[in-house]
Amino acid sequence: MSEESSVLAQIEEHRAKIDEIDKELVALLNKRAGHSLVIRGLKPGAHMGLYDPKREEEIFEKVDSYNDGPLYNENLREIYACILKVMKETPSV
Amino acid sequence: MSEESSVLAQIEEHRAKIDEIDKELVALLNKRAGHSLVIRGLKPGAHMGLYDPKREEEIFEKVDSYNDGPLYNENLREIYACILKVMKETPSV
């Protein structure tokens, strides 16, 4: 096997691992969304507004505390800003 | 327990579940980033450019195929656009 095709094979192996991780990520994001939607439905009964900046900051701080790298905290916060934005936009079932 | 405090308690339970999910999400995002960084280091040896639009589209299509809801495909694509952007920005170790 040539050097280049050996490197290509290694890249393909890592991509296959990423695909497996993405399956789990998608499942977890959906599980998270399920809980978000339930919370959204419950909030009026607790006289709570939909947007809770204190809870959002708490989430960012917890995410920082869970982070062992190689991603930096700023990277994770950027991803989580996206996740939280999408969770707010998802129509209630 | 009053109606309102019962609802607040339920919200707290769902938030605790979300916190557990976030621990797993952060671990998986870091695992994914690890593989991305290895791929980035290998690419020059395969004469591949860092940006691969064909692979990015493949990732979006796979994410669609993994999606059982309640998130819509567009929601997941939005999150993944963020993830892929951050993965590209993460400095190589």
Features:
3 helices, homodimer
Describe this structure in words.
Two copies of one chain form a homodimer. Chain A is mainly alpha-helical and 93 residues long. Chain A is 76% helix and 0% strand. The first copy, chain A, is built from three helices and no strands. In chain A, helix 2 packs across helix 3. The first copy, chain A, is elongated and about 65 Å long. At the A-B interface, helix 1, helix 2 and helix 3 of A face helix 1, helix 2 and helix 3 of B.
Rg of chain A, alpha carbons:
18 Å
**Average residue-wise pLDDT of chain A:** 93
What is the string of SSEs of chain A from the N terminus onward? HHH
Largest interface: A-B, 59 and 59 residues
Helix coverage percent of chain A:
over 70%
The shape of chain A is elongated
Amount of beta strand of chain A: under 5%
Q: CA-to-CA gap between the ends of chain A?
A: 53 Å
Tally of individual helices of chain A: 3
Alpha-beta classification of chain A:
mainly alpha
Overview in brief:
Chain A contains 3 helices and no strands.
Please describe the topology of this protein.
The structure is a homodimer of 93-residue chains.
Chain A: H1 3-42, H2 53-66, H3 73-89
